[in-house]
Structure formats: C-alpha cells, structure tokens
C-alpha cells in the first residue's frame, strides 16, 4: 500500500494523526492521538468528558467494535435530590430546538477509558506519547476555524448557563481568534501519565462527582468507578459483493444502515433519489419491528427525529500496513458545566431527548445510552476498501448510505463520493441539497425542503478508501473536514 491517510473534522486533528503514522504508529495510535486533538480543536463537537465508538480492523483479521459511549448515572443517588434540567433553546435559523443542560444533564463519560483501552488492546505507541500533541495544542492555543466559530455561536446559549470559559463578555470566540486551555492540557497530560484511573477513581473523579452532586447532578463515585469499555461484535451486511461492518446495538445507527443496504442490494442498477428515499423511509419504518429485538426499547429509534445539529465528530484512518480505524465521538451539545481546575467540559447526554426514549432519567444506572453513531468499514474479498463514519445525529445513517452508494454503485473517487449532493428522508419530509432532482421527488408526492447550499445538517462524513493499494482520503466540506497523508 501507499502511505497511510487520516480523514478528520479539522486540519489539526488530521495532521497529528498523520504525524503519528509517520513516526511508525499504526492506525489506532493515529486515531487516539487525533481524537485527543479533536477535543482541543473541535470543542463544540466532542470532549474528554464525552464518549464514542471505535471500529478497529487489523490487516487480515476480524474487526472489533469498542463501545465507550456514555452511561446513565445515579448509582446510590437519591432521585429526589436531582436538580431539574435547564431547558435551553437553540436557534437554527429556520427552526429552534430545546436541549437539556446543567448538572442533571451529565452522564458518565467514557472517553478516557475508551482511548486507553484502544491503546492497550491495539496500539504500538505509549499513551503518554500520544497525548503530547493535544496537550501542547491546548497550551499554545488553537486558531478558531470558520466552522468551529459557527458552532460556538450556535451553542452560546448553552455555554451561557454556566462558566465554561469560552464566552468573553457574553460573546463566543470568533474565527481567527485563539483559544487556550491550559487546565485541559494538564488533564490530557495526566491521562498520558497515569491512564484513565484519575478520571474514574482518582482526584478528578472525586472533583467531578463532588461538583455535580452538590448542584443536584446524579454522577456518583460509584458510577465513575464502575464504568467499563465494552467490546462488541460488529453488525454485518452484504452490499454488491462487499461486506459492510458497522456499529451494533445498543446503537441504532449501524443496524439501520445495514438494513437499508440490504434493501438496496436487491435493486438492479445504481439507486436513484426515489430509491434512496424509499430505503430511508424503510429505515424509519423498521425502527419498531422485531429488527430491534436486542435494543433497550424496541421503539427508541423514533426519538432520533428531533435532533438537528449532531455535535459529533469522526476520524477515519487507514495505514500502509492495512490497519483500519474508524472512530466517532461526541459530548452532545455540552452541559454548560466546566469542572474547576480540570478543563473538563461535561456532556449533556442525559438532557438529549433523542437518547431518552422512555423519558428523561428512565434509564437504569450503568446502562448504555442509545446512539445514532456508526463507525463503518467496507471490505471486498476480505480486503479493506473503505473506512468511514459521520457526524449528524439521525442523518448519520443517510450520509453513510449515500457515500457507500456513490463509491460502490457510481464508482466515484472517495472525495467526490463525499462531496456529492445528499438528501435525507424522515417523518414525511425529504430534505435535499442542490443537485438532487427535487422535481422527480415532488412528482412522486414527496414534500420537499430545499437547502440553498451544502449544509451541516446532512452530516460530516470523513472517509478513507483503498483502491488497489492506493490510499486516498476525503474530508467533508460540510463540517470542515480535512485529510492528511503520512507520505
């Protein structure tokens, strides 16, 4: 193969991943270093106090899914002491959405445990070395990109509920400004030096729990001490002679993607817009079927309908030796809670309506929250053909579906497959980007929502493809995507 490639949601994230490959690390080493940098460079998309999923495939070996998503808190807590969620309205221009924030919105984070587990299980470079670039960036400062500035503006109402340190005189950081987080740098260094223990049983864990419980949160010392990374068997689907491996339950995104691919595989020829809409409608219809028998609540996927922003990021890596890593992480929209002295901006997963299908705080303590995230691999005759994943909440599955179709059915190079116009069908409405034949959809009776340009709404798919040993990457322009090569 040619040199390795990293596709990520920010140029700094991709660059550091490629630097690790250049230094002799494998795809997992590169992905871990890149995730840590994304915490600094993409703070409205992810965080050290969030969670995620990582798909790893060794060359010639079977893929494994590491689940380090957020769990429900409350072990040993008295629900009567819980503070109410802070309801914060966020404007998306043509629509508003209410998110739950504050101390009660915080779930048990999995990021420190997940990254350390990935290095222990698959890595070749010590965690202490992989944390160095992110810590340095946090101390020196990162220049705010246009994409990140837009996310800061969007999330300003949530940040204003607490003392996050990002707002200055009530204003979010502007594009071109520099954000420095020395306390976060110290926490990243601590992760490198001591592993995840300080975040679950040590002083950071004690500070997190003490701060939250004092304010009416639910995260107890027992919740943190009991957190575990779970290794899962990927969901598998067949599409045009390829094997597609993706995220299994309790996540819904992967299993819905696998279902849609299975439907499209029965069709002859490349799917057109109408065929894609039918597949997306079938994904929505399947959510209540026995297809979800293994999920926490058979009807929970209906609750992915309301999320508009999808504050998530994705990293795809394929190295020269054939190691593949696909990792998606998120802190939700953020809780507005910053833990003093740590730089940790806590997640608001317990305040996400999409992740609370039975109502807020209905999940038993320690249970994994559901998710739409779906890190994915595509193999042909046992050879890795594509590594991909996306941000975008319930648009993740439709973004991944279309990128796979664009690549496999239309034969587009990976960047063209990612750039191509997208659509998303849900709840009776078809949203389309310019370039999609809206007239044909309208003639078939589908209500249409037309976007004037490529839009963050349709996800942020970062992908790497292997075509006959030549590796190429694609960063999604919808969310500031970038590609870096190891040479």
In short:
By secondary structure, the chain is an alpha+beta fold. The protein is built from 15 helices and 22 strands.
What does this 3D model show about the protein?
The chain is an alpha+beta fold. The protein is 31% helix and 22% strand. The protein contains 15 helices and 22 strands. The protein has a 7-stranded antiparallel beta sheet with strand order 8-3-2-12-11-1-22. The protein has a 6-stranded antiparallel beta sheet with strand order 9-10-15-16-20-21. The chain has a 3-stranded mixed beta sheet with strand order 17-18-19. The longest helix has 15 residues, at 27-41. 58% of the residues are buried.
What's the SSE blueprint?
Blueprint: E1 5-8, H1 11-22, H2 27-41, E2 51-57, E3 64-68, E4 86-91, E5 96-101, H3 111-122, H4 127-130, H5 132-140, E6 142-143, H6 146-159, E7 178-179, H7 182-194, H8 197-200, H9 203-215, H10 221-225, E8 230-232, E9 235-239, E10 242-246, H11 253-264, H12 273-286, E11 312-318, E12 324-330, E13 338-339, E14 344-345, E15 376-380, E16 383-391, H13 396-408, H14 414-419, E17 423-426, E18 429-432, H15 438-443, E19 448-450, E20 460-467, E21 470-474, E22 482-485
Parallel strand pairs: 18-19
Antiparallel strand pairs: 1-11, 1-22, 2-3, 2-12, 3-8, 4-5, 6-7, 9-10, 10-15, 11-12, 13-14, 15-16, 16-20, 17-18, 20-21
Helix pairs in contact: 1-2, 2-3, 2-5, 5-7, 11-12, 11-13
């Amino acid at each position: 193969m040619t040199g390795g490639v990293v596709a990520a949601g920010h140029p700094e994230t991709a660059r550091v991943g490629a630097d690790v490959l250049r230094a002799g690390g494998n795809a997992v080493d590169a992905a871990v270093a890149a995730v840590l940098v994304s915490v600094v460079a993409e703070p409205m998309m992810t965080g050290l106090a969030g969670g995620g999923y990582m798909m790893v495939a060794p060359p010639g070996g079977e893929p494994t899914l590491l689940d380090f998503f957020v769990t429900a808190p409350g072990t040993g807590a008295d629900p009567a002491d819980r503070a109410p969620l802070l309801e914060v309205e966020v404007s998306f221009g043509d629509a508003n959405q209410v998110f739950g924030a504050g101390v009660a919105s915080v779930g048990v984070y999995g990021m420190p445990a997940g990254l350390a587990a990935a290095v222990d299980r698959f890595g070749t470079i010590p965690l202490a070395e992989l944390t160095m670039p992110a810590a340095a960036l946090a101390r020196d400062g990162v220049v705010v990109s246009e994409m990140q500035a837009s996310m800061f503006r969007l999330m300003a109402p949530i940040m204003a509920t607490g003392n996050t340190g990002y707002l200055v005189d009530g204003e979010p950081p502007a594009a071109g400004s520099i954000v420095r987080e020395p306390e976060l740098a110290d926490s990243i260094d601590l992760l490198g030096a001591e592993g995840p223990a300080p975040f679950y049983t040590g002083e950071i864990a004690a500070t997190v729990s003490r701060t939250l419980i004092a304010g009416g949160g639910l995260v107890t010392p027992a919740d943190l001490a009991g957190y575990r990374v779970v290794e899962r068997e990927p969901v598998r689907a067949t599409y045009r002679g390829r094997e597609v491996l993706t995220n299994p339950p309790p996540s819904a995104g992967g299993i819905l993607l696998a279902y849609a691919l299975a439907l499209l595989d029965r069709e002859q020829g490349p799917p057109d817009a109408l065929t894609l809409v039918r597949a997306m409608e079938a994904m929505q219809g399947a959510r209540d079927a026995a297809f979800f028998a293994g999920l926490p609540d058979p009807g929970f996927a209906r609750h992915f309908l309301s999320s508009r922003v999808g504050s998530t990021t994705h990293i795809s890596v394929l190295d020269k030796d054939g190691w593949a890593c696909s990792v998606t992480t998120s802190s939700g929209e953020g809780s507005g809670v910053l833990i003093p002295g740590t730089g940790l901006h806590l997640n608001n997963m317990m305040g996400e309506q999409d992740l609370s299908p039975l109502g807020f705080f209905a999940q038993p303590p320690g249970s994994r929250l559901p998710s739409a995230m779906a890190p994915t691999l595509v193999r042909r005759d046992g050879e890795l053909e594509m590594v991909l994943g996306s941000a975008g909440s319930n648009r993740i599955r439709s973004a991944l579906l279309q990128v796979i179709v664009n690549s496999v059915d239309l034969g587009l190079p990976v960047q063209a497959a990612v750039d191509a116009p997208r659509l998303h069908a849900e709840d009776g409405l078809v949203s389309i980007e310019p370039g999609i034949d809206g007239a044909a959809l309208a003639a078939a009776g589908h209500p249409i929502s037309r976007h004037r340009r490529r839009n963050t709404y349709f996800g942020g798919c970062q992908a790497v493809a292997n075509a006959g040993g030549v590796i190429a990457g694609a960063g999604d322009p919808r969310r500031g995507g970038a590609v870096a090569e190891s040479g």
